[in-house]
Amino acid sequence: MHEFSIAEALAAQVLRHAPVGGRVREVEIRVGALRGLEPEAMKMSWDAVTHDTPLAGSVLRLDLRPWSLVCPACGRTWESPVPFETCRCGETSPRPTAGDELNLMSITVDEDETTAEEA
Ligand SMILES: [Zn+2]
After folding, report:
1. What is the pTM of this model?
2. Distance, CA 23 to ligand 1 centroid (Å)?
């Protein structure tokens, strides 16, 4: 599964960046449309790969980027929620130019363990 391997790589990256002793509460990533990630599948994969790690219970937030399209006829570039959209010049085959990014944007950590709400 596509999302699962991405979640695994992401978890490893987060663990390298997370401060020792801090409890990771939230992880935010920015994902380009070309990645084709299913947000629900991604979150389920995240829960699965972090289950037995210090990241267990952390929330994965996905910032899904729109498609970035360029028109081969008139050169216009624009962003769109869908990959196939007719350009306003009439060209029906714009090409996606970007959108394969997958960036770790932020890690939210609870530093103060004395206030941890551990049951
Ligand atoms: Zn055009």
Report:
1. 0.76
2. 49
